[in-house]
Amino acid sequence: MSSVPQDLLDGISGSLAKEGNVLQMVLVTFIALSCYNVAELVVLVPATFRRWRGLYFWSLLASGCLGVVPYSIGFMMKFFTRADSVLSVTVLTIGWWTMVTGQSVVLYSRLHLVLRDEKTLARVLLMIVVNFFCLHVPTTVLTYGANIVHTGDMAWIWGYNVMEKVQLTGFTIQESLISTLYVIHTVKLLRLGAEVTIRADARSIMYQFIGINCAIMAMDLLLLGLEYANQYTVQIVLKGFIYSLKLKLEFAVLGRLVGIIQGSRHPISIAIADTLPLCSYPRPQENTDHTDQMEPDHEPEPESEPKEVFVQQSGDRAVETKNFVESGRELGRST
């Protein structure tokens, strides 16, 4: 490692040897804040959910506990300690995989609340899977190559620095596309004046939801700008904090969005114009008089008296009692 220039252009193979104590303290503070945000989620998420299951529940916890925390601790080991490179790189790589892809899975798991197009949802899931293999795997190979297998080889360091920009750009586009889908279809709901927006606080929550998604895109662009400005160390430390903050924001606003939709009387897809045919309910057929279609050799039966319907309200259910009285006939017969 002594032959490698120790500056920020070294990417993951560099160190903080030339950085001042103030910057190092700031970076450690952001790492601590990242872990604190995850600790809050670990307490709030199980306490909020009645049932500990579902893609949203587990992806939220995994992205925090198995993503943000190992990612932050791994970089702390790499930059601030003399821990073995194999250990630190392995810890931060596992955390990076789970944190970045887990964030997209969290967004995907609640996308169906505002978007009912199954083909679009399938394309989003396919995009997440393809980017996992196309962006995570090459970056990981170059990470191990620059730090362990070919330590000090500038070709591997250069390759990693290029791939770091490529993967960060790809994941920024991925998360921005998912957030854009949220914004577009939430605005569509508001314009259609759906029943879910009738609640007093529904519209304000949806406006907050739009604002948070715009803020998420802005934070991703901030990380991308730091990367292209070659502020690698600042970017990777802020990334853990920003991802933990995004998880907290998404947990807050997506939970309120679920509450709005569950409180409505009809599926949310009724409010989306292009899915109305999928969600329309068939009307009951009206009774028609078929007396003129009867065969001539059949005598019409005596007309029955009108049916009386009594409705009694019991709690939240309406109990209907029908009394049928036929003229000229007894209702009960002995067997």
TrEMBL record:
The keyword Transmembrane helix applies. Keywords: Membrane, Transmembrane, Transmembrane helix. Residues 22-261 form the DUF7703 domain. Residues 282-335 are annotated as: Disordered. It holds the Pfam family DUF7703. It comes from the Eukaryota. The chain crosses the membrane at residues 22-43, 55-73, 85-108, 120-146, 205-226. The keyword Kinase does not apply. Residues 286-308 have a biased composition (Basic and acidic residues). This is DUF7703 domain-containing protein.
